[in-house]
From TrEMBL:
Domain of life, per lineage: Eukaryota
EC number(s) reported in the record: 1.1.1.27
Coiled-coil regions, chain positions: none
Protein name: L-lactate dehydrogenase
Every Lactate/malate dehydrogenase C-terminal domain range: 39-72
GO biological process, one term: lactate metabolic process
The reaction(s) this protein catalyses: (S)-lactate + NAD(+) = pyruvate + NADH + H(+)
Similarity-based family: Belongs to the LDH/MDH superfamily. LDH family.
Keywords: NAD, Oxidoreductase
Source organism of the structure: Cyanophrys acaste
Molecular functions (GO terms): L-lactate dehydrogenase (NAD+) activity
One protein family per Pfam: Ldh_1_N
Pathway: Fermentation; pyruvate fermentation to lactate; (S)-lactate from pyruvate: step 1/1
Domain Lactate/malate dehydrogenase N-terminal span(s) in chain numbering: 2-36
């Protein structure tokens, strides 16, 4: 942040929610410039699998995955 004050942080490592929060707090950046991938990857996988099953283009499938996944979910 010191050398690139206009930076945007994208967090894509697990546990993403916690790491995104810590990155935001430690960086001092506005919350709009610290982004966590969250369940975006899971949602993309879901849309792809749904499109394969239904034999339609993935761009025609819409849906989102919400909540935790992996070791932190249970």
């Amino acid at each position: 942040v010191k050398y690139s004050p206009d930076t945007i942080l994208l967090i894509a490592s697990n546990p993403v929610d916690i790491l995104t929060y810590v990155a935001w707090k430690l960086s001092g950046l506005p919350k709009q410039r610290v982004i966590g991938s969250g369940t975006n990857l899971d949602s993309a996988r879901f849309k792809y699998l749904l499109s394969e099953k239904l034999n339609v283009a993935a761009s025609s499938c819409h849906g989102y995955i919400i909540g935790e996944h992996g070791d932190s979910s249970g």
